[in-house]
């Protein structure tokens, strides 16, 4: 196996075009290689590319480079303030050691690659669920050059062949709120059973543009569009939140990888959605 370390996106794309696999934090590909579940012909180490470490987060716009660590997203004061949902998701991804090595781009790539068949590495997909709920856009490099893709599109099509995530952008209009809740075995380090993320604009007490995504080790990551329609333009009363939680169970029941969702997981969906909506409405 060949290994090369590069310092520019152009050099990385040259190797990726030849079939090399990008190596960032190594928290997924290295264990896969150890277990002989992945045997890349070549690795191109992108950890020295300064352009991939961009970090800018204000009350109306966030720019997060692919090489920004999950730990920094969890701890940075700006993400805590303006993107609490994403910050919470990052803080619950793996152990502290994993978060320090794991990167936004690597976690997102894994989430997009396994969104339809979660399982062993489901906890690595936590950021993908949250970025889908946040309506993020992904700037990537491919054979066609630089392009921008919405998370909704990438979940439908996957990442283009021989591509590299450059950064993620999130736009937050006035009144923007976000929240996240995760249920897992052995807390953060264990497999994600269910995770739920929400973003919305709170205007005069009413929820506008709500986006809700759910994922977990037996669920394909997806938006709960029926719940979104129920909440749009409405005041988030306790009664409406209860109704939304029940709607989430009904909506996700038909999309489970399993034939039936256990009552336990149904209760987690109900509790998780109620929690994130309450957090978002009072943020």
From TrEMBL:
> Which superkingdom does the taxonomy of this entry point to?
Bacteria
InterPro entries referenced in this protein's UniProt entry, alphabetically = CO_DH_flav_C, CO_DH_flav_C_dom_sf, Diverse_Substr_Oxidored, FAD-bd_PCMH, FAD-bd_PCMH-like_sf, FAD-bd_PCMH_sub1, FAD-bd_PCMH_sub2, Mopterin_DH_FAD-bd
Domain FAD-binding PCMH-type: from-to ranges: 1-175
Q: Which UniProt keywords apply?
A: FAD, Flavoprotein, Oxidoreductase
Q: Which Pfam families match?
A: CO_deh_flav_C, FAD_binding_5
Named from the GO MF annotations, one term is: oxidoreductase activity
This chain belongs to which protein, by name? FAD-binding PCMH-type domain-containing protein
